[in-house]
Amino acid sequence: MGRLLSVNVGLPCNTTWQGRTVHTGIWKTPVKGPRMVRRLNIEGDGQGDLAGHGGEHRAVLVYQYDSYRYWQNQLSRSDFAYGQFGENFTVDGLSDAETCIGDRYRIGKALFEVTQPRVTCYRLGIRMNEPDMAALLVKHGRPGFYLRVLEEGEVETGDEITLVTAGPERMSVSDIDALLYMPGHPRDQLERALRIPALSTGWRKSFEALLKQRLKDGAVAGNAGLTTTPGLAPAWQGFRPFRVSRKVRESSNVTSLVLEPIDGPPIAAALPGQFVVLRLEPSPAPSLMRSYSLSGEPGASFFRVSVKREAHGAASDYIDDELKVGDIVQASAARGSFTLRPGNTPVVLVSAGIGVTPVLAMLHALVAEASTRDVWWLYGARNGSEHPFASETRELLGALPRHHSQICYSAPDPEDRLHIDFDVRGHLDVRVIEQLNLPRDGDFYICGPSGFMSDLSAGLASLGVAKDRIHTEIFGTGPSMTPGIAASPRQTPHVPAGPPGPGPMVSFARSGLNVRWASSFKSLLELAEACDVPVRWSCRTGVCHNCETGLVAGNVSYHPEPIDAPADGNLLICCSRPEGNVVIDL
User: Fold this and answer.
1) How many whole angstroms separate alpha carbon 245 and alpha carbon 243?
2) Within 10 A of 440 (CB to CB), how many other CB atoms are there?
3) What angle (nearest 5°) sits at the alpha carbon of residue 542, between those of residues 537 and 545?
4) CA-CA distance, 539 to 574, in Å (whole number)?
5) What is the pLDDT along the chain (586 residues), one digit of tens a residue?
6) Which of 51, 438, 488, 557 has the most C-beta neighbours closer than 10 Å?
């Protein structure tokens, strides 16, 4: 059937790339003699980024010698050595077009199962000194594939590769790879792929998402596998005019706007936890784009957004000082996947500061449906004067038969009453969480500063809460998620150096920047980095969907002018360029 030409291993190391330090295990070198293969990897081997590589379904990476010859010809190179493509097994035979997901092979004393195509990332480009190498592997249909270890044992160069069991459905590695990355995504093929038990969890979720994201004519729009959860399409493209019907002071530093549409059909009901993008016109200053979570009840005929006044905040200053009842603002349709999940499990709503707004909408939704679920409301503020919605949340919680509440003030005023206005003096942190004996099987919704969310998420995980039960929402700009790249000091987002470009406007809604596109930038990712805008991304090539984590760059929406483009897409901005004016939720 085939033969093992080389066993290649390597431990992660740091390498310099484009002025950054990348931690990667892409460098593999051949070893002699037998090597023990364990459930997660080969003796002496390791992965630098466990979010995108490694794990039970990706324990061993396979690449074919036939592909070596192919790339030597394509790239006019003759300097390849075994392990060149970061693979653990270099094999003779087992082409991507013939090897099927679910096939089981005996190699030496170990038994393996094919689980998924390789998902290539920018590190392969570093190893090959070919920046486009990851995209080329997908374009040319030569990704290679991963194996799961069913029976541990020793392997050695020269071992025969014997097919033990053929996988069901007989879908090859190439078939599966094309089904995700190529246009079309036929429904019958997606359903066929989902009938393969060996298919890894990440690819399974991607195909399940694609099945749910279909147009009326039966075609599939976009690659839903690039997002953590498939979202509903927004109710309208671009922006609609809304009139400010009320302006309410919620605390010393938070003001709510009630916005009612003045044209077209009634607004579609938003899901609890979603946000809108507002376009503000503080004449004579340029337009401002900002994302605000909706804080009102579900099914309302209006939007309520609540805005905290920030020091030197252009948008919040304008809203607080100048925007009046009767003024017009432009608003997008509701969007976002940080939403309340249906079910009967306990719900734990955790927030700090202005992060209260999306979870407040969830609390409204639970009351509206007369929920009998256990509902926990945990909130942290500085003091009573900076505690918005205090009476509103007490009234809502009182309508729920199984509610619990814990309010923390980090610096209470003398008039703030312990056990009446608040329950704990200090910050809402892991220490407080540990003392509450929260239900481990509940769904936890966390919103607040990035450090607050990361600390609480880690603390809940250490207490035994499953990762898929912990949901977070970035409020304002958040930290970058750049797998494998060492952290660097965070800079305040700013307009890039040099004169503005002549191209369309790119608005970073959460960072508050409006920047003209210039041809000197190869992609929106490069523009974001030039502005020091924190960007969540999974690769730099446009082909890596990082199956297990679904990291995406950010929510991208197009203005209705000058082109009629899709309004919402969750696009990977690492590989995209603007087509008309764009708003990015970063």
Assistant:
1) 6
2) 13
3) 65
4) 7
5) 799 999 999 999 888 877 778 888 899 999 999 999 999 999 999 988 776 678 899 999 999 999 999 999 999 999 999 999 999 999 999 999 999 999 999 999 999 999 999 987 778 888 998 888 887 888 888 999 999 999 999 999 999 999 999 999 999 999 999 898 877 788 899 999 999 999 998 888 888 878 876 543 454 444 444 444 444 556 677 789 999 999 999 999 999 999 999 987 788 888 999 998 898 988 887 778 888 999 998 777 899 999 999 888 888 999 999 999 999 999 988 888 889 998 899 999 999 999 999 999 999 999 999 999 999 999 999 999 999 999 999 999 999 999 999 999 999 999 999 999 999 999 999 999 999 989 999 999 999 988 899 899 999 999 999 988 999 986 554 554 555 555 556 677 888 888 888 888 787 766 777 888 888 887 777 788 788 877 654 445 545 444 333 333 344 444 333 222 333 333 334 445 665 666 666 6
6) 557
Pairing label, strands 470-474, 443-448: parallel
pTM of the model as a whole? 0.62
For 124, the 3-state DSSP assignment is helix
Burial classification of residue 390, based on how many CB atoms lie within 10 Å of its CB (0-12 exposed, 13-18 middle, 19 or more buried): middle
d(CA 366, CA 377): 12
Question: CA 137, 138, 141, 142: dihedral to nearest 10 degrees?
Answer: 30
What is the pairing mode between strands 347-352 and 375-381? parallel
Q: How far apart are the first and last CA of the chain?
A: 50
Q: Going by DSSP bridges, is the β-strand pair 424-425/403-409 parallel, antiparallel, or unpaired?
A: parallel
The pair of structure tokens assigned to 405 is 């509440």
C-alpha 316/C-alpha 249 separation (Å) is 13
Of the candidates 55, 24, 26, 61, the one whose C-alpha atom is nearest the C-alpha of residue 40 is 55
The secondary structure of 509-542 as a DSSP string is TTTTEEEE--TT-SSHHHHHHHTT---B-S-SSS
**Using CB atoms within 10 A of its CB, is residue 401 exposed (0-12), middle (13-18) or buried (19+)?**
exposed
**How far apart are the C-alpha atoms of 63 and 420, rounded to whole Å?**
65
DSSP string, 136-189: HHHHTT---EEEEEEE-EEE-TT-EEEEEEPPGGG-BHHHHHHHHHSS---HHH
Count of Cβ atoms closer than 10 Å to residue 394 Cβ: 12
